[in-house]
């Protein structure tokens, strides 16, 4: 038995709650992972995991051992990355999940500059607006809009997206130009709704003008759960959109979208980068986080900082 492999297998089973998921993230067979954990338990002469047909739970002894194993694995990684060649050239695979418009319009166009500095980092990029199981899917970090409600994650506030309400000229010609946000609720107007994965429903947006404050959601004819689809629906004239400025900017320049209610302010959408507290921040993850922070500073700087 390779003790290091066995500890890695045990830690991944604890983190994913499943031998099958652990095997997939380690690129091993389920049988191999099971045997490694069994051999580890035999060596330690203690049960680390309680297994049932449906789930795997860590025992009290297993939980205490897991905390030490995570620190040990992190120390080994630190020892490797402290070598001059490794510290100067971060390398290895990172799995990251980001919202689809953020990937298409900001992150991917900037990646050539990232790879110019870090050519030996391989990114596996999940592009979605769904709620990702960071630990279960072995994701190193995620970038998300809106508050991070999962208290088990470490979340870093990296930017604030300025928002506005937009519509196509064709839609406004057909439905009329609303003079006040309250008109969004009128039967003559429609919006495109966005289904937030954390809540399972479309949420209203807070707006203010001086002392006047309202929450507006409008009357969505279509509700989608993907940012690119949301933008496409608005460009098709299916209703008004609440968009971050970076998403609207090229379509404003081309005349495809017009901005409404210029004298109203919307509460900015905070952007967060989150990762598990037991996930060691390796050199490759650290430089990626720093790069994303700089990218957000250019396109959506923190407000009030």
Automatic annotation (TrEMBL):
The keyword Hydrolase does not apply. InterPro entries: LysR-type_TF_proteobact-type, LysR_HTH_N, LysR_subst-bd, WH-like_DNA-bd_sf, WH_DNA-bd_sf. CDD domains: PBP2_CrgA_like_3. PROSITE patterns: HTH_LYSR (PS50931). Residues 1-59 form the HTH lysR-type domain. Keywords: DNA-binding, Transcription, Transcription regulation. GO terms for molecular function: DNA-binding transcription factor activity; sequence-specific DNA binding. GO terms for biological process: DNA-templated transcription. Belongs to the LysR transcriptional regulatory family. This is Transcriptional regulator, LysR family. It comes from Ectopseudomonas guguanensis.
């Amino acid at each position: 038995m390779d003790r290091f492999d066995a500890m890695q297998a045990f830690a991944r089973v604890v983190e994913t709650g499943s031998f099958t998921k652990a095997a997939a993230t380690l690129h091993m067979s389920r049988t191999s992972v099971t045997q490694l954990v069994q051999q580890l338990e035999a060596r330690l002469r203690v049960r680390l995991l309680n297994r049932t047909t449906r789930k795997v739970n860590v025992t009290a002894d297993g939980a205490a051992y897991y905390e030490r194993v995570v620190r040990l694995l992190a120390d080994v990684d630190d020892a490797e990355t402290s070598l001059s060649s490794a510290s100067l050239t971060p390398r290895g695979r990172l799995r990251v999940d980001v919202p689809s418009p953020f990937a298409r319009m900001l992150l991917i166009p900037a990646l050539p500059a990232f790879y110019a500095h870090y050519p030996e980092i391989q990114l596996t990029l999940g592009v979605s607006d769904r709620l990702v199981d960071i630990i279960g899917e072995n994701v190193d970090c995620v970038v998300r809009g809106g508050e991070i409600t999962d208290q088990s994650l470490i979340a870093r506030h990296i930017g604030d997206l300025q928002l506005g309400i937009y519509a196509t000229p064709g839609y406004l010609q057909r439905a009329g130009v609303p003079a006040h946000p309250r008109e969004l609720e009128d039967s003559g107007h429609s919006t495109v709704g966005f289904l937030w994965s954390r809540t399972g429903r479309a949420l209203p947006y807070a707006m203010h003008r001086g002392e006047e404050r309202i929450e507006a959601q409008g009357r969505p004819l279509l509700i989608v759960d993907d940012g690119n689809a949301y933008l496409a629906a608005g460009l098709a004239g299916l209703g008004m959109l609440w968009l971050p400025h970076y998403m609207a900017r090229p379509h404003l320049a081309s005349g495809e979208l017009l901005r409404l209610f210029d004298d109203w302010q919307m509460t900015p959408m905070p952007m967060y980068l989150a990762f598990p507290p037991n996930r060691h921040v390796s050199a490759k993850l650290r430089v990626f986080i720093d790069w994303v922070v700089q990218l957000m500073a250019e396109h959506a700087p923190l407000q009030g900082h």
